[in-house]
Here is the input.
Amino acid sequence: MRKPQHKLFRENMPGNYMPANRTGWTLTIAFVATALAIILFGHLLSGWLESSLPAIVSWVLFVLITIRFVLFAKNNS
Here is the structure.
């Protein structure tokens, strides 16, 4: 698959990626909403099951998704 001609993100400083256009902003907002939903679901499930394991798993999943999103931004900048 070919890369699009326009860049979704731009690198301001090394390791600092900002959305470059509307599509980049849309992806960033979708990422934030998804990450918050995962954490909220994990904490709600944790309270319902009276176990801390779902909350811990949701935070670990959040970290993994954040790392993947940064790598995605790096590849598309």
